[in-house]
Amino acid sequence: MVIVFNPVAGRRRAHLLWRVLDVLVANGVRLDLAETHRAGHAEALAREAAAAGETLVVAAGGDGTIAEVANGLVGSPARLGIIPLGTANVLAQELGLPFAPRAVAASLAFGRTQPLWPGVAKGPAGERVFVQMLGVGFDAHVVHTLPPGLKRVCGRGAYVLQSMSALFRYDYPTIRLRLDGAETEAASVIVSKGVLYGGHYRVARDATPHAPGFSVVLFDHGGPGAAALYGAALPLNLLARAPGVRHLRATCVEFLGNAPLPAQTDGDAAGFAPSLVVDAAAPIRVVVG
């Protein structure tokens, strides 16, 4: 078992990691701890571990670290394990994974898995795998402009503060896209593999993370007022009832000739909107207990 640890994402909860490791070692589990030092390092470490024949690679960190490790495991038989240490831990909550150290250790040791079918964002800069969601528009702008220090100090609340700051600074351009061949427009877009967003908040009511396809949430109204309304509806789990919110299913999402628009995947900045979003060729086996 190789454990890829992000010391930045897990700094405030590092003691939980050590407690998980203590339980594993006490039960005779052989493990190697690999610490990341830069963006993209988790992906490289996971790919090296899979190439070396490791059967279980564990992401210890937040959703961004999990996504990087998943990028490194795509196409290999290695299983993905998760020790949730991040700010929101959306995927861990989506899959119903344990958070208590002993339960996490037992889950990893037992090794029961479920398929997790990632999405792949393709663009001029290459391909990027995401395990929970891809956002284009206002939420991605917030992620791009979020000061790292604010996130470390305020945790999940940093996104709320940055959203309020960005309400009157974002231009809200129209996003043109094609869903399985049908063209449409929106002010913001979330392409989701899972139901949850930003923690335990429901954003995509018909998402299926274990199967191909996406739940695409389209926000038709732009501007500060609409963004504030959507932001207020999210923590109340009322987003599905908000005016101008559409929920569609698609297997292929194309972003059409837009000016450069910010994109985020799994809560991390991901450059500009990709030209194409499709499913990965095959699922990853993720350890769930």
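(ticket continues) Second input and output from the same batch:
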Amino acid sequence: MPRSIALLLGILCLVGCRGAPVQEMSDARQAIEAARVAGAAERSPQDLQAAQQEIASAQRHLEAQEYARARDAALEAKRRAAMALSNSEHGPESEDNP
């Protein structure tokens, strides 16, 4: 039984990994928009710019049908957008301001 479950999970992973990262792209775009609305352009411009560059990279990979690379770039865009949002709401973290 455990072997069957492992095989099924492996197949599901392969099927899920093969397609375009539609959800990841959407999540990243929403995160970037949330950061922008929160004022990241003024309060955390480097992180917002990095997120925008990553989503642009993800889009290029998507258009080239390089789905794994597109997914990775979209996830990084979302991560950077989350950093920008956090910095916009709480200020950037520094050694002086833990």
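Agent notes: The first helix runs from residue 2 to 18. Confidence is low (pLDDT under 50) at residues 94-98. Closing as not reproducible unless the customer responds.
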